[in-house]
Amino acid sequence: MSSVANLDTEKKKRLFLELSKDRDFIYSLPKHKMEKVIQSVRKVKERKYKRRNLPKYVVPAYKSMNLEEVNRFFSAFHPCEWRYKVLFMTQAFLGLRIGEVVKITIKDIDFQNKQIKIKTEKQGPFEVQDSMFLHDRLQALLLDYIQEYEREIAEHDGFLFYTSNARCRFKHVSADRARNVFRKICNRAGLTETYGEREPYSDLKNWKPGKLYKYTTHSLRYAFAQYLRRKNVPEEIRQHLMRHRDRSSLQIYDAPGKQEVDSELRRVFSLNQ
To answer: pTM score > 0.85 for this model?
Structure first.
């Protein structure tokens, strides 16, 4: 380890990249050594990129989009951006996380039985496959999309939302790329509200300042959850649709939005009463 510590920064980066690419070497490690490597990397990451634990926003559902904002967002796409529009509409119709929607393949869709398999994140160390109902509006949208891009989807191992970037190690659009497109569309739609500045890392040398935007790709998932609540969908069904193991996680999405809070205060303190 001392020899590694004496290497300059560029050499360290190259060494790490080589080790991360050498899957055979990683695979050859015994379990206890692999666990030690993972633990060491985790500790360095936590120490180097430690953030201050400041609250990001007060109202948990503040980052949700209302119906008018959702319509503004989807109306801001140009015709040449239809692939990404379908990606985000799929996310909004099913309440998916961005990392889940980009991994959907054509094999995951059963049009005959109206089912779509989702590789659910945040269910432990491995992805869990869940099956969700494919309602008519989404089914019609995906049928049109697959018909338009059938050849390209086949060339990219069946990934619906394939990447055109030959340098990408995955054949599907990355979650980061989708987030960048989301931000561009939000800017075009005028959905640019912020609620603070990015907190600095403990390693200030590599930290870059930036704004914290109210709307992120997760806002579409929030909007889906809020829509289910307003439609009085039972809690146990909402838990299943949101794919949460713990029902208490629904409280994050069930919190009233800012508009609801403001409306209630306006009603309580109305001068007409």
So the answer is: no
User: Is 117 within 8 Å of 108 (Cβ atoms)?
Assistant: yes
Q: Which three-class secondary structure state does DSSP give residue 58?
A: coil
Where do the domains of the chain lie? 62-198+209-213
CA 44 to chain centre: 25
The Cα–Cα gap between 223 and 233 comes to 14
Report the distance separating Cα 107 and Cα 158, nearest Å: 7
Q: Which amino acid is at 255?
A: A
Distance (Å, whole) CA 263 – CA 265: 5
**84-136 per-position pLDDT tens digit:** 999 999 999 999 999 999 999 999 999 999 999 998 876 554 456 788 999 99
For strands 194-197 and 115-120, give the pairing. Answer: unpaired
Q: Which fold has domain 62-198+209-213?
A: hpI Integrase; Chain A (1.10.443)
Q: What confidence score (pLDDT) does residue 125 get?
A: 47
